[in-house]
Amino acid sequence: MIGLILGTSEGKKIVSLLNEFTDDLFISTATAYGGQLLEKYKYKILNSKPLDVNGMIHAINTNNIHILIDASHPYAVEVTKNAIEASRVCRIQYVRYERPSIIDKYINSKNIIIVNSYKDLYKYLINIRGNILNTTGSRNIEKILDMNLPNRIIHRVLPSSNVIEKLYKLGIRTEDIIAIKGPVSYELNYAFIKEYKVVAVLMKDSGIQGGTEEKINAILDCGAYAFVIARKNIQYDTQHDKVFSCERTLVEYINKKFRT
């Protein structure tokens, strides 16, 4: 059986390509919503709850998984570390789909500031005068709120009842919430920035698939600043791990392994 940890839109494409030759798949997503997005695909087992390293090891051993594909989000660092560790413990092949970064093409722009942590981000934001649009996701909102900035901060989040309830419990006002499923177009990014009179946008380097290019172009055209939380570097074992940035190339590799 092939195991998959999914957390990106490309995960569906990987499953679709795998389905051309097998449905012997164990799929794990972090949420029930992620599982719902896979309803039209073929697989044997679907887990829609987060797995820690012990949960991954149990799933591998219980389902006789011999290859583990990690297509989690590039910022889900703990998930990737757990997947690598579980693969080591179970002595199976670890295969990573890593969404390509595009931030380097903007690195010379004075309006694009790359920071390595939220602590570093704070050092910049204390000098910002004006409204801030936070698009780093609901899991990071406490880090922003803990900065106690005087600015109005608008949070763009998924339109999930759990997420909205969390924001209300944190004291965030309805008028400071944009609930929409991304990625969104250049035009909509531009409109949000203009409508809310945003001078700085907090974001991740989520690649082309995550709408990073449209977002940055809108920010630059509005004359705002983009503060990009940098990705963490993952140390892969180059002798044993396989890392791909193309879904089809990854599946071609799996197909060869599957047939041997």
List the defining traits of the structure above:
260 residues; alpha/beta; Rossmann fold; 2 domains; 6-stranded parallel beta sheet; 10 helices; precorrin-6A reductase activity; oxidoreductase; Cobalt-precorrin-6x reductase; Precorrin-6x_reduct
Widest β-sheet, arrangement of strands: 3-2-1-4-5-12
The gyration radius over C-alpha positions equals 20 Å
As a percent range, the share of helical residues equals 25-40%
Low-confidence stretches: none
How much of the residues is beta strand, in percent?
15-25%
Helices and strands, in order, run as EHEHEHEHEEHEHEHEHEHEEH
CATH superfamily of the largest domain: HAD superfamily/HAD-like
By CATH, the topology of the largest domain is Rossmann fold
For the termini, the CA-CA separation is: 13 Å
The count of helical stretches stands at: 10
Please outline the major beta sheet: 6 strands, parallel
Principal-axes shape call: elongated
Structure in words:
This protein has ten helices and twelve strands. By secondary structure, the protein is an alpha/beta fold. It folds into two domains: 2-100 and 233-259, NAD(P)-binding Rossmann-like Domain (Rossmann fold), CATH 3.40.50; 103-229, Rossmann fold, CATH 3.40.50.1000. A six-stranded parallel sheet has the order 3-2-1-4-5-12, with helices on both faces. The chain is elongated, with a radius of gyration of 20 Å. The protein starts with a strand and ends with a helix. The model has no long low-confidence stretch (mean pLDDT 94). InterPro entries: Precorrin-6x_reduct (IPR003723). Pathway: Cofactor biosynthesis; adenosylcobalamin biosynthesis. This is Cobalt-precorrin-6x reductase. GO terms for molecular function: precorrin-6A reductase activity.
